[in-house]
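On clarity, I found the account of how folds are encoded harder to follow than it need be. What matters is that the chain and its backbone geometry are given together, residue for residue. The format is easy to grasp once an entry is in front of the reader. For illustration, here is how one protein appears when written out as sequence plus structure tokens.
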Amino acid sequence: MSKNNNKYCLLSNDVETTSIWHNSLRDKTGLKVLKEGMPLLLDLYEKYDIKSTFFFTGYIAKLYPEVVRMIISHGHEVGSHGMSHTKENGFDVMPFNKQKQHLVESKALLEDLSGQQVISFRAPALRVNEVTTRALEESGFLIDSSVASQRFDMFMSFGGLKKLNWLFAPRLPYRTSAQSLFKKGDGSIIEVPLSASLLPYVGTTLRVFPFISSIQRRLLAMESSFNGKPIVFDVHPNEYIDEGMEERQFKKRSSNLISSFLQDTLRSQLKVKNLGLSGLDLYEREIQYFKKKSFQFTTIKDYVKQQKL
């Protein structure tokens, strides 16, 4: 059980300009995130008195600074999602110096906009490599949440081979090795893994397979009651906007036929299910479940502080 015998549900949000409908990054989608998706999420969290962590890309923070500032009065945590969500800027392919540059730049930008110290990071698309730990340490970060322990759908996303490490990563939060975010050690970075039970317990799974998610939440709640593992759920405000009135301009991001089918065609067709308010209703039901089970809702930063990890 957790050190203070409470059960925790850590709701987290990745904020970027990704259009699920068009399978691409779009400034226009970023504006809809600011004007539509974020207000819906903030209202939902206020309704249930929830404090959450928002991971912002530097790109959307520069494009629409208010998307960062708007969460401050609600008491939420500002975290970094790197500077860019483009395929070529994945943390699994960038060399150390470029990773550090992106981390330092995003941290400074978000701290300037929010007035908060930014110590939590989540890699875009959860893509990391063997030098990411050192890049985080040297950039002043203390917490990472890029590992999805025992998640098994890695080949549906970019960086699938490195994500095989998910299968063997510890399930409970841990201090990482200096050489790997996937292993325990005596480094300065605390890993708070995303929840998974083969499939990820995230907004996409909830929208596409709501019945499976209803089973997942029960299993994860039982696990939490047994060993204190926090529920770490990930959503995106772009899941709660509706671009379906626009003609779909589908963009493929991979030239490899198999990768393109798995990561672009199949995945993007599944991901458009229950976008908009229907997806938000499903998310509210998950929150209600954990509220009834007496889970505590807090930010990732405050959880780590309370647990003295």
